[in-house]
Amino acid sequence: MPDTLAHPVRFGSNAGQPVTRRDGIAKVTGTATFTADNSPENLLHAVYVPATIARGRVTHLDVAAAEAHPGVTMVMTPGNRPALQGDPSAKPTMFSFRIEVLQDDSVRYAGQPIALVLGETLEAATEGARLLNPRYAAEPARTRIDDDEAAPVEPGGFGRPAGVEHGDVAAGHAAATKAIDVTYETSAQYHNAMETHAVVAQWEGDKLSLDVPSQALLMSCAGYAYFFGIPAENVTIRAPYLGGGFGSKAIPTGPQVLAILAAKETGRPVKLMLTRQQMFGPVGHRGATRQRLRLGIDDGAALTVIDHEGLAATSSFDDFVEPAANASQGLYAAGALRSAHRAVRLDVGTPGPMRAPGEASGSAALECAMDEMAEAAGIDPLEFRLRNYAETEPGTGKPYSSKALRECYMQGAERFGWSGRPLLPRQMKDENGLLTGWGMGTALFPCPMFAADARATLRSDGSALVETSAIDMGQGAWTALAQIAADSLGLPLDMVEFRAGHSSLPDGGVAGGSGHTATAGGALHAAGGDVIRQLGEIAAADPESPLHGAGNAAFSARDGRLYVDGDDSRSDSFADILARAGSAELVGNGSASRAPEDAEKFSMHSHGAVFAEVKVDPDLCQVRVTRMVGAFAAGRIINPKLAESQLLGGMIWGISFALHEEAKHDPRTGRIVNADFAGYHVPVNADVTGLEVLTVHEDDPYVNALGIKGVGEIGIVGSVGAIANAIWHATGHRIRRFPIRIEDLLTA
Amino acid sequence: MSLSIRLTINGAPRDIALEDARVTLLDLLRERLALPGTKKGCDRGQCGACTVIVNGKRVNSCLTLAATLDGAQVTTIEGLATGDRLHPVQEAFIEQDGFQCGYCTPGQIMSAVGLIAEGRAGDDPERIREGMSGNICRCAAYHGITLAVQEATRRMAEAEKGDAA
After folding, report:
1. Contact B86/A25, CB-based, under 8 Å?
2. Are A347 and A142 in contact (CB under 8 A)?
3. Measured CA distances, A106 to A63, A115, A144 (Å)
4. Are strands A561-564 and A555-558 parallel, antiparallel or unpaired?
5. Where in chain A is the domain with CATH 3.30.365.10?
6. CA–CA min distance B120, chain A (Å)
7. CATH architecture, range A358-448+600-746
8. Distance from CA of A31 to the nearest CA of B (A)
């Protein structure tokens, strides 16, 4: 642990408090406006037609029948689609995918748009879309991971992960006195935010105004602008609230681009909202994986090698290879480490980042393999992890900027009661005869930062306006970021008006990678600091200010007053300083990104430990998660109430990954047969009981000025393995594919 | 074709000239009556985001054809608060952090109001979880939702007791 503070860390009166959501009233009264809630005058409704085969060509669409339906105003097909200025196969921004916008009659996956129908009403457009009754020349679809040959991944940034190799891997295998060689499979999963992807598009000349849910407002402006050949500043996005994102709403998708094109063509506002079924295809998913893990230990149960190979499914036309194997490279101290990725091309929509991309799938396999290795060694799984605790980053030897994982293990184990766990499986039964098992997993997640800007304006009445194009998709940006801003200005929270969710504001960056609070918060913190600095200069130079001449001393701000540090008798109110200077307002600017020298010097990660209890019916093999404790160290927690909610949500995603989620393809048509909430299972309230989150104190002076690491994704990471390991402990069966099904246990 | 119906929505009578028999209550509220607080999550009764109260019972408005509702009383999320005074369920959802993104929240809250009126769950968390399981929350704010329904149930029962006394 570093023992010096490289950057001053401020601890104020707002950040750190469990404030309830500032957008709470809007969200409980139905006045929070989501994209599809907007209905401008003269609106047209768009409905897109999804391909019902996975590979081939569209040979016929009954356009005449659709056009003849009352209320249908336009049918857009590859035959009459107006030109786009940008190439749908290009990648105009940092995170981009090739999109399907009726560029030809080919079908590359089920669910791909093959036509767009516009109508005066939603009912008319929906019926028009049905009447198109497509016919196809279908080819055999490849939808299973063995349906085509795997190929190595050529590393190339986003979606094409490089492998990692540290130490002598062959020697690591040779040195092992005990070894395991196991293969785990994970299923294709679809984000399924409750708000489906939507857009309301309006053109005025060459200016485009969009309501669209976006996890990256300015980047999305650039993306949409590219397709329509206009400057990015001509695109305005309003996105005050996202009905969930989980990684699927960062970039323009084909259906949204088509709706914008339709608005341009018709000269009328157009609204498109994907159906739930249409969420299974053109808007990304977590690709299926098959992962082989070879672990070896010496006589002291120290890992000699972690050798992790991942095979992941991507689409036939674009690359997003789940970087699953890399999840094992930063966690345990092993003599040698290797990760490698291969991909197979299938007739599915292109996968993309989904909550904890790489880490969720990779950790699921790794944490189960660690449990198997501990079993082989005959020692407790927690003890095994402690014996292989990495004091510095494995492979590189870099110090951690902070790492309170040991405390997570201890506090989590204590709270859960782990010490009472029998070593062998199938030892515990509850009072109803249900097999009971306890399992654990370690959670690891990197803490990236993007770049963001912010502006703070102090007003003459002493209140402030703070602005950045930050995004709230449920994590609580409206609250946590306002807390940071208030703290940076030394103002009570109710004196701060916070504006976000609009692309005309300073660039709030990307809400992804669990880095939004750190990034946008960092920019707000800097903007507030800029205001205070200027205010200090004005006051020190003002003979009438009690702070006159104190320019060499440091000032601190609290409760709307500027104080000479260490001398509370000398202070001046913000409002008085501005009034005497004759200023109506004072504007400060700030930006934030990771200091490159810190990024180079330190390994930066959030850590956690998850403990789970399951109960399994010995005859029916039905599995219930009855208890979970997650202990997480994620740097400074701005709002414990909201952070706990996000961590709980992540752990429930872990339950979902372990026991529920799986998109199943019909091998004949390639279509997903369970593309709705009846067939694609996610946890409901009755699936969730006995969950508890502990946040472990951690000061990190290097990760960023505020010491924030982020909590959006790490909750899922250790949870999947913890549940699978608990199932083994209850039943004695290792099920090596996710989700773990009743039939797997019945036939084990 | 014109199908005129009369609905009482959030206490106000509305005469609605409906030209299309296919219009669901959900789309009527959202697209024609400027009441978009009720949300569309699946459009086939699988997620509960569109839950409203019709004649005292919670229903999936996406599965209800508007033309079948002549004379009905409909309460939506927009009609729950009294002026600036939130309904106890709304208050409890804020206090217990019973939501994250807020998209399923109108449906969760209307469902909770319906569940409490049904009077079968009381403040038993297991029954509440079961009774709220028709409402999917992908952010998975279930812990807070259960606490909020428990809390609101207690407060409403106490208020009723107070009124009776």
Report:
1. yes
2. yes
3. 17, 12, 21
4. antiparallel
5. 24-29+450-593, 358-448+600-746
6. 16
7. 2-Layer Sandwich (3.30)
8. 6
pLDDT, residue A462, reads: 96
Whether residues B132 and A30 touch (CB distance < 8 A) is answered with: no
User: What backbone phi and psi angles, to 5 degrees, belong to B150?
Assistant: -55, -50
| Residue with token string 């038993």 | B124
Q: Of B38, B95, B103, which is closest to A20 when you measure between CB atoms?
A: B95
Q: What is the mean pLDDT of residues A520-542?
A: 96
One-letter amino acid of A339: S
- Burial of A491 by CB count in 10 Å (0-12 exposed, 13-18 middle, 19+ buried)? buried
**Residue entry with tokens 């290009």:** A90
Per-residue pLDDT, A595: 87
> Quick one: average pLDDT of A392-402?
95
ipTM of the complex: 0.98
CA–CA distance, A500 with A196 (Å, rounded to integer): 21
pLDDT band, residue A203 (cuts 50/70/90): very high
Q: Which fold does the domain B88-164 belong to in CATH?
A: DNA polymerase; domain 1 (1.10.150)
What pLDDT was estimated at residue B1?
A: 59
Instruction: Give A453's pLDDT tier (boundaries 50, 70, 90).
Output: very high
CA B130 to chain A, closest CA, distance in angstroms equals 5
Contact A54, A348 (CB under 8 A): yes
Question: Six-digit token pair at B7?
Answer: 């609905």
CB of A41 within 8 Å of any CB in chain B? no
- For residue A552, pLDDT over 90 is answered with no
| Chain A contacts in chain B segment 25-64 (CB below 8 A) | 27, 30-31, 34-44, 46-47, 49
Structure-model confidence comparison of residues A395 and B110, the more confident one: B110
User: What is the average pLDDT across A687-701?
Assistant: 95
**To the nearest whole angstrom, how far is the Cα of B124 from the nearest Cα of chain A?**
13
Q: Please tell me the least confidently modeled range out of A543-547, A550-554, B143-147.
A: A550-554
Residue B19 makes CB contacts below 8 A (sequence gap 6+) with B1, B2, B3
Q: Which residue has the tokens 């449906």?
A: B107
Provide the CATH number for the domain formed by A24-29+450-593 in this structure: 3.30.365.10
Q: Please tell me the total number of residues recorded for chain B in this structure.
A: 165
- Reported as a pLDDT band with limits 50, 70 and 90, residue A510 is very high
Residue A713 among the catalytic residues: yes
Please give the Cα distance from A201 to A259 (Å, whole number): 7
- pLDDT band for position A9 (50/70/90)? very low
The first and second tokens of residue A163, run together, are 């492998």
Name the pLDDT band for A14 (thresholds 50, 70, 90). low
Domain with CATH 1.10.150.120 in chain B: 88-164
Count how many pairs of residues, chain A against chain B, have C-beta atoms within 8 Å.
Answer: 182
Q: What residue type is assigned to position A119 of the chain?
A: G
Q: Within chain B, how many helices (H) and strands (E) appear? A: 5, 5
pLDDT in tens, B16-67: 999 999 999 999 999 999 999 999 999 999 999 999 999 999 999 999 999 9
Provide the pLDDT confidence category of residue A2 given band limits of 50, 70 and 90: very low
- The CATH 3.10.20.30 domain(s) of chain B lie at 3-74
First-to-final CA distance of chain A: 45
For residue A690, count other CB atoms closer than 10 A to its CB.
Answer: 13
Encoded tokens for B136: 């999917």
Active-site position among A195, A698, A713, A743:
A713
Instruction: Tell me whether residue A580 is exposed, middle or buried, using C-beta atoms within 10 angstroms of its C-beta: 0 to 12, 13 to 18, 19 or more.
Output: middle
Residues of B in contact with A652 (CB under 8 A): 140, 142
Residue numbers in B near A30 (CB within 8 A): 35-38, 76-78, 106
Mean local confidence (pLDDT), B106-131: 97
The CATH classification number of B3-74 equals: 3.10.20.30
